[in-house]
Amino acid sequence: MGFQCQYCGNEIVNPTQKDANNNRIDTNEKQKWRKILFTKQAYEDNYTDTETFLIELVQNANFQQYDYMTVVVDSATVTQQVTVVVLFCMVFQLAYSGKVGLPFLLLVVTFMLIFGYIIRILTDSNFNLMDIVGSTMQIALVFGCVFGLSPVLRTLTDAFSDDTIWALTSIMLIAHTFFHDYGYINGVDRSSFDAPVSLNAAIFASILLGSRLTSSLHAFCLISTAIEVFALFPIMCRHLKQFSLEFHLGLTLLLFVLASFLLFSTSILLALVYIGAVFITTFICPAWLIYMQKYKKEINGPWDEATVRSFQQLGIADME
Amino acid sequence: MQSIYSPSSPSSSSSQQVTEVHEHAKQTYRIAMVSDFFYPNMGGVEMHLYQLSQCLIKRGNKVIIITHEYNHRQGVRYLTNGLKVYYLPHVPFYNQNTFPTLLLSFPVIREILIRENINIVHCHQAFSTLAHECILIGRTMGYKVCFTDHSLFGFADASSIHMNKVLKFSLSDISHVICVSNTSKENTVLRAQIDPSLVSVIPNAVDAEIFTPDPSARDPNKITIVIMSRLVYRKGIDLVIDVIPIICKRFPTAHFIIGGDGPKRVGLEQMREKHQLHDRVELLGAVQHAAVRSVLVRGDIFINSSLTEAFCIAIVEAAACGLMVVSTKVGGVPEVLPPHMIKLAEPNSEDLAEKLCEAIAMVKTVDPYKLHQEVKSMYNWDDVAERTETVYNRMNEQSDVSFMTRLRRHNSCGVVAGKINIMLATLAYLIYSFMEWYKPRDEIDKAIDFPNEEYSKKIKKGKS
ipTM score of the complex? Predict the structure, then answer.
């Protein structure tokens, strides 16, 4: 038995039903829109459900708020590397201008090597006797090779003009600072130093500069300095920083003072440029980075490719 | 500056069936489908293009396809039911994509569109350079242009940033967009920053006549698990490599069949070697598209381990063949099949193994024919064609826009990018005006349509 219209007597097909509080119940209420494709829904194909559209969008999920002092302290690594490059150039300058004699250069090389090793032994607890012996053998091999090949290395880029040498060296050393593995020194969990481009650029720069020197022994000194300063120094720095932050900062300061002093004796303009660059790197760049953080807009959602760490990558042995 | 020459308007034809009591005028369209990816290449986009075109032709529309040459296969070819394909003499340079010419393909495509009296241009796939060019060309000539996006993109890596900017340019002035899943719609709207009401969600479908179950092909003593995909990182083969030894150890009757080829094949062979599973893991290599069904019906369970997927046709094909599906919960996959037909796992090895164990436990209770019937009712290409026609109707109701409006739309892409886009759109318009003077429309011969009705009548007569 259906409902009858009280005016015309016709049957009402969809009568308005009322609930206990005399409010209308919409019996033709559409099914709520679901995010599925396997059933036809009572909505147009271009319907956008305002409640659930982009609900799984996540912005800045990995946001890290940086602290100014932490970034300043961490920027000491960059300062250190720039200083080290400057010091290397100063060593070349001293050898090229003939201000210091060969014995002094050899002394500097030996002293840096021994000093670096002592610091490594003191700061790295895992560095036992076996390692010392092993690395001494390796050092002897490397330096022996360089010594033996030094005549060849010196004449390698002899034919280049001076301007080419200066230009190429500048480019190589800039590339070195750009691609250097700062994370390794700052203590990122990695077992070995991993920056092939920067190391190659630096060694190439040293070979270029070596060709301008007067004898192959001079070239040997320069290339040895390069190896110590670019290849071995980062390893020592990492361990020093892990051992004590104060020593790390102290070393940076010491190197900075030494570099400025040497630069002042050569050219005041260069010294001022260097000091300005260090100031910008240490104080202005961290502030700039923190200022730009507010523009960070990282979007993540269900459309992202899932990151998979397979058992092989994780090193997990076969599961039962 | 209004577009000087407006394209031909769609015709209304009477309904196909003479048994209809009253004639209702159904709009039919003359559609140009454009994509770099088409037969003889076999893949998702290619199948989608072909099936959609066939169903649209059946519904009385005229469809042509524009693509680039494949191994010297150049010129005009006719496929089933008179589907005309233009293989343009543009050489692919990477991944079956034509070298982007910006606007140098304008004369050729303009001539094709005028020759065939097209009124709708439908471009497919964001990767396809030809599709992007045709969006610009189509809009410059005043056609209604539709775009279908078949894949998901991220936002963080260099290639995605570049692609998204290109997409933003193309979609700033488009009539309508079709996405294959709701997740894809969200992704496209975010990437191109367009109005969501301009995006329709029309899923892919599967040809249920081909993918039918055959329980007799299964081995009753074993539980066969099928994996059919390209063996690349993106398809999550690393997960499969981890899961197979676990499952083989736990279930002595489990047997794996892996079809497909790629760089990760070596990893699979190494795993097989390491665990001595030569009799339990079968590596088939690359499987021809025609042979896919015969491999699928051998299985009880199908695994899809992709790390990202807009709409996974593979799982629908597997479900149509009566297999239970286990898949990673990524992208648009949760929307595709109802929960009783699929087990969704988080994209890591432990959860995938767990869900696979659950599937193995219940696989013998599943009726493959029932699964097939359900899939048949959920997804079919005629439905896709009908919904696509609704989109065309919607596009048809939009009024033509003036050139200035188009420029304003292009300008909204960004401060610098907007100006570059305006320059590009203006250049396209200038080239178009030049071509209209250089080779006027009335000098272009109109092509004869393939006589589809007579052809299908003859076929029916021939059969009876």
Answer: 0.78
